[in-house]
Amino acid sequence: MSTSPGIVPPYLLARIAAVQEENWARAADAAHRTLAAPREYRPVRSRLRLSIQEPGTLVAEATPAPDREISDAKHREVLPGTRVRGEDDPATGDVSVDEAFDGLGATYDFWWDSYARDSIDGSGSSLLATVHYGRDYDNAFWNGERMVFGDGDDEVFRGFTRSLSVIAHELAHGVIEDEGGLLYRGQSGALNESIADVFGALAEQHRDGQTVDEATWLIGEGIFTDAVQGVALRSLKAPGTAYDDDVLGKDPQPAHMRDYVETRDDNGGVHINSGIPNHAFYLTAKALGGHAWERAGLIWYRTLTSGTLPSTADFTAFARATLAAAAAEYGEESEEVAAVRAGWTGVGVIPDDRQAES
């Protein structure tokens, strides 16, 4: 299995690398070197929670806790780098180190609080990250063992540790791999990217306590500099609207199967066509309301962890699997099944039987 290309799609880096304007020279050089950089792939703690219950009884509960370790590559493309912060160490004052540490913790809390999953493998595996990778490195990626963060070029991209959706997205690739993986090509690859986006967005919403309507549904909000006309890398709520910039071009993600992009680039468009299942999840969550991780997210999690999802699943197979997971969890005639069906029919992946009957 090969590593994913990172949170920033290769087509976007290629576009930046091709820019000729002098004022974008640093960004173009950074994008070129980011594309060329090799990336090696390598396939329990506890904490005490106190609560007061009626009538005023203090209850102590031991729950799993993250085991985090942050290393500093010191602008070299060598992993893991020098260890700079562990689980019991204080903040370092290095913004990237401390943001990565906090982001890993927030992601861990999301998986545990929402689905009782103890870390990436469900068995308390350590959460490892390396910051300050390379010089002007324009990406963040999961290499099968740890999170790796570049600092960006300061012309197009800021540091990648500032976005929890980026951190949680990449860690979700680890969860996907642990559950059997999805072949990183074509529709199964787009599903791989989409599931990582879904849980990246949900981790951010969980940290902030946001409802479906309060959330931005953006992936990578805040990683662009002010020079870029855009708010994020992707939008689950409105695929194709995250950016529209003279240098970067327009966000190419479709939101419906009628606009599916046939391409050989980007492993068959895995970062582009992921907009379709992304929007299906958003429509499902919107129909259910409340906190998206509670019902819509649980259905997607049950689907991923069912043990029955083939590694080559296409959009239709995954849609059917989510319907089966919703029915098993909530019942065939439930509101949840109806919402899942509406999500997938809304993006044209499965037919709307009601329209066919009318």
Intertermini distance: 46 Å
Helix amount: 25-40%
Compute the average pLDDT. Answer: 90
Show unreliable segments. 41-48
Query: Care to count the β-strands?
Result: 11
Radius of gyration: 20 Å
Structural class: alpha+beta
Encode the helix/strand succession as letters: HHEEEEHEEEHHEEEEHHHHHH
Which range does the strand content fall in? 5-15%
Largest sheet: 5 strands, mixed
> Any idea what the shape is?
globular
Put simply, the count of helices is 11
Enumerate the strands of the largest sheet in spatial order, edge to edge or round the barrel: 4-3-5-7-6
Characteristics:
39% helix; 11 strands; two-stranded antiparallel sheet; 358 residues; globular; alpha+beta
Give the secondary structure arrangement, pairings included.
Elements: H1 10-17, H2 25-36, E1 46-53, E2 57-64, E3 68-72, E4 82-86, H3 95-115, E5 127-131, E6 140-142, E7 147-149, H4 164-178, H5 186-208, E8 218-219, E9 234-235, E10 244-245, E11 249-250, H6 265-269, H7 275-288, H8 296-304, H9 315-330, H10 335-346, H11 353-357
Parallel strand pairs: 3-5, 5-7
Antiparallel strand pairs: 1-2, 3-4, 6-7, 8-9, 10-11
Helix pairs in contact: 1-2, 3-4, 3-5, 4-5, 5-7, 7-10, 8-9, 9-10
